[in-house]
Specification:
Blueprint lengths: L14 E4 L3 H11 L3 E7 L3 E8 L2 E8 L15 E4 L3 H10 L3 E9 L5 E7 L5 E6 L7
Parallel strand pairs: 1-4, 5-8
Antiparallel strand pairs: 2-3, 3-4, 6-7, 7-8
Helix pairs in contact: 1-2
């Protein structure tokens, strides 16, 4: 009996979200949340910026022909960002256009994990997670 070789591992590269103001959203995710710009590009239909935080990425897409704001709807739930400093990241993100929904809260029932929730400038939900004793960058 011969076995097939295992396929190469699949890695999620990024999540793409539609934004209304590309510059404002780029500033929110870089200055506010600590992402770095990987590249910027444009097509005939949209302008985009790819941002990275370690291996994870977000592609911000600003369509040229759709002036109405994006509707996150009920399919997209949230982005989750791990950080060793939940209160600090929450404060910084809010200074750059984020809106706090839930303050940084320690959850003893989850091993002392700290959680906070905010919305980005377009209303996308972001959960900040800090795990005690780890450096989640």
């Amino acid at each position: 009996m011969t076995s097939e070789p295992a396929p190469p591992a699949t890695v999620l590269s990024l999540t793409a979200i539609r934004v209304t103001d590309l510059a404002k959203s780029t500033e929110f995710y870089t200055a506010g949340c600590g992402f770095e710009v990987e590249r910027e590009f444009a097509t005939a239909g949209f302008d985009a910026v790819i941002l990275r935080a370690g291996p994870a990425g977000i592609e911000l897409i600003a369509p040229r022909a759709e002036p109405e704001p994006p509707q996150p709807g009920n399919m997209f739930v949230k982005l989750v960002l791990n950080t060793p400093d939940v209160p600090g990241l929450l404060a910084r993100a809010c200074r750059y256009g984020g809106t706090e929904e839930t303050p940084a809260t320690v959850l003893p029932e989850f091993g002392g994990m700290t959680i906070a929730i905010l919305r980005d400038p377009d209303g996308y939900r972001i959960e900040l997670v800090g795990r005690p004793g780890t450096d989640d960058h």
